[in-house]
Specification:
Elements (H helix, E strand, L loop, with lengths): L1 H22 L3 H20 L4 H19 L4 H24 L5 H32 L5 H26 L1
Helix pairs in contact: 1-2, 1-3, 1-4, 2-3, 3-4, 4-5, 5-6
Length: 166
């Protein structure tokens, strides 16, 4: 469960940054961002824990650079930063939870942690959406991303409630 959330966070964060840079005509930077995302996924597979520090620094720098200096759409930059923060947190959490022997205890620990960071991600995406509305940059693509996130979130919530009921 945590590994899926970790991989999704990396893809979501890097994809949001790359799409934001691509929308504004910075295609070479978008390719470099995507390349870095592939490296981050390889680092997870190879269990290079140290790479998460590079990942968070890269995501936050790319988001801040695009938002403040280049005046890119705020939603994509916020989403990229949120994805990077979640991936950084989940990397550390995944490395700590691997060593818990009891499956039930690990699942409960994972569930509580994922619920907490999901609430923070929802808050962040809400703030990003408000920023998009304020700057009059709320686009169809952003609406699609929000719909996908809501559908994934509701699906996960249903799965959790079914597991609790068993």
């Amino acid at each position: 469960m945590t590994l899926f959330a970790l991989l999704f966070s990396i893809v979501f964060g890097i994809g949001s940054l790359a799409f934001g840079y691509l929308l504004t005509g910075f295609a070479p930077f978008a390719r470099w961002i995507a390349f870095f995302g592939v490296l981050w996924l390889i680092a997870v597979w190879q269990r290079w824990r140290w790479f998460a520090y590079l990942g968070i620094a890269f995501n936050l720098f790319a988001a801040a650079f695009g938002l403040w200096l280049l005046n890119f759409p705020p939603g994509w930059m916020f989403a990229g930063a949120i994805g990077g923060l979640l991936a950084f947190d989940l990397t550390d959490f995944w490395n700590r939870v691997r060593f818990i022997d009891a499956d039930e205890e690990r699942r409960g620990f994972e569930r509580h942690h994922l619920i907490r960071i999901s609430l923070l991600a929802i808050l962040g995406m809400t703030l990003a959406s408000v920023a998009m509305f304020i700057k009059l940059q709320f686009t169809f693509e952003w609406a699609i991303v929000l719909i996908v996130i809501v559908v994934l979130g509701l699906t996960q919530l249903i799965v959790w409630f079914r597991q609790i009921g068993k």
